[in-house]
Amino acid sequence: MTERLKNIGKLHGDRVIWLLILFFAMISMAVVYSATSSLAYRHDTTPFRYLIDQAGFYIAGFAVLLVCYRIPMKWYRILSYAAMGLSIILLAVPVAVGQLRSFTLLGIPIHPAEIAKVSTVLYLARIIEASPLSTFKEYALKILLPVGMVCALAMLGSMSATLIIGILTLIILICSGVRRDFILWTIPIAVGAVAVAFTISIVSGGKIFSRFETFGQRIERHFSGDDTEDMSEAELAEYNDKTFQADQAREAIQLGGILGRGPGNSIKRDVLPNAYDDYIYAIIIEEYGLLGGVAVIILYLWFFYRCMKIARACTRKFPVIVVLGLSTLITMQAFLHIFVNIGILPVTGQTLPMISHGGTALIIMNCAFGIILSVNRTIEIKDLKLKTVNEKEETPCSTES
Asked: Does the first or last residue of the chain, that is N or C, have fewer Cβ atoms within 10 Å of its Cβ?
C-alpha cells in the first residue's frame, strides 16, 4: 500500500503517448537538420545551428509539456476563460501593428492563431460542461460570440487556421451533445459571417480580410488543372511561380519512391521553399520513401487511438471534450499538412505538428500533449487511490478471518 501511495507522485500518463513524443522528436531532429540546408546557406551558417535551435525549442516545449501535465483539471476549468480572453487579445495585436499572422515579443515570433486553437478547445469544454445551453440566446452569447470573435480575428491573417478552428468547433459541438437545432443554425450564421467578411474585403480593396484573395487564388490554381497551352510567356511564368512550391513538393515525393534516397540525401530541400516547415512531409518521403511517409501517418493515427481510449475512461464532460478536441486538432492539422504536400489540397501554410521546424507552433503542440497527459494522469491517480482505499477496507476482514 505504501508503495502505491509513493507512486502517486511519480510520472503517470499513457506510456504510448510519452513514447510517441520521443518518436516525433527524433524524426523532427533528423528531418529539420536535413531540410534547413538552403536556409543555412541563405543566412551564411550551417544546418547544425538550426538543429540546435530545434533542440532548444523542443527543450522549451517539453518543459511546457511537463508544467501542463502537472496542472490539475480543476485549474484548467478556471484557466479556460482566461486563455480564451488572452487569445482574442493576442489575435488583435498583429492587426494593431500592421502584421498578418504574427508579432515579435522579446525577439520571439508569436503566432496567436496557434494559441487560439488550444484555447478554443478548453473554453468550449468548460462552457459545455458548466452551462445547460438550454436557449439559443445562451448558446449564442457563450459559444457563437466568443468563437466568432476568434475566427474573425484569425481570418485577418490565416484562412486555414480559421477553417481549422471552425471545423474543430463544429466537431466538438456535435460530439458533446449540444442541441442539434442550435448546431444547424450555426452553419448558416457562419456562412453569413464569412459572406460579410468577404464583402468587407471587396469594398476595402483587399485592405481588410486580404487573405480571401490569396485563399481564393490557391483554390482556383489547385482545382483548375494544368491547362497552360493558351497562356502567354509572361502568364506562364507567373503561373509557374505561383505553383512552384506545390510542384516541387510533388517532385520530391516522386524522387523518394518506396525506400527513399536516404537520410540527408534530399535534392529538393535546396529548391523547395519552406522545406523545413510547410513542406517537411515531402522531404520525409523523399529521404525515407513511401514507407517513411506511411510510418509517420501511423504515428498520428496511433496517437489519436490512444487519446480515444483516454476519453472513454473519463467520467466528466470537461476532460472528455478536452481530449477529444486536442487530439482531433493535432491529427486534423497533421493530415491537412500531409494532404497539401501530396497535392490533394491547395496550399494552406499549416505545419506538421511536433515535426516541423519549431517556434510557437511546436511549443503550443507540446502544451496540448501535456494537457492530454494531465487528463490521463488524473484518471490513473484516482484509480490508484481507489484501489488503495479498497485494500484498506479489505485488510481487517482478512486479518480477522
From this structure: C
